[in-house]
From TrEMBL:
Gene3D superfamilies: DNA helicase RuvA subunit, C-terminal domain (1.10.8.10). NCBIfam families: methan_mark_9. This is Methanogenesis marker 9 domain-containing protein. InterPro entries: Methan_mark_9, UBA-like_sf.
């Protein structure tokens, strides 16, 4: 994805380490007493709205991948600097770089805090071309040409997992 330059080089510390509300992008669901509740108050979000927004973001972006992660999608995962084999294996499987992952987390923070709406974020991604490596991975996974993979990636807003599913649902690919 060409829109990803540096990821999120000035990403904040996790909320559990005293980070600001932007760090809610790295939090899991609010299921136990922890600093997330203070950050949610600061952001003007109640726990239900926070969960709803994260789930909506997961449905429409590549952060929805990761059924084998702790909470079932990358949308709930930590910052890339915190070691996590479950997150990292998902990133490798879908062909997402650490920079792209952090770029999506930054967009998630912007969405959670109301700085951008989801449609605006999706337009940003659809205006860019997918990285060649991602096109190759989708083509190989679905057993289609790179041109078909590129079209499916555009239709799936850059989400390689969704692109492969689209191709397979159409009977293209194995």
């Amino acid at each position: 994805m060409n829109v990803v330059k540096e990821g999120w080089p000035d990403a904040p510390s996790h909320v559990c380490r005293g980070g600001p509300p932007e760090a809610l992008a790295f939090c899991c669901p609010p299921v136990k007493p922890c600093p997330i509740f203070h950050a949610l108050d600061e952001a003007g979000l109640d726990p239900e709205e926070y969960v709803r927004r994260k789930k909506e973001f997961a449905e429409k972006t590549p952060l929805g991948s990761g059924k084998n992660t702790c909470f079932g999608s990358l949308v709930w995962c930590c910052k890339i600097t915190k070691p996590c084999p479950l997150r990292d294996s998902t990133l490798q499987r879908i062909g997402m770089s650490p920079e792209e992952y952090m770029w999506w987390k930054k967009k998630l923070a912007e969405y959670l805090l109301g700085k951008k709406d989801l449609d605006e974020i999706l337009r940003e991604t659809s205006e860019s071309e997918p990285e060649e490596e991602t096109v190759e991975v989708v083509a190989e996974a679905a057993g289609v040409s790179e041109e078909e993979a590129r079209r499916a990636l555009e239709e799936a807003n850059g989400d390689p997992v969704r692109a492969v599913k689209l191709l397979k649902s159409r009977g293209k690919g194995d």
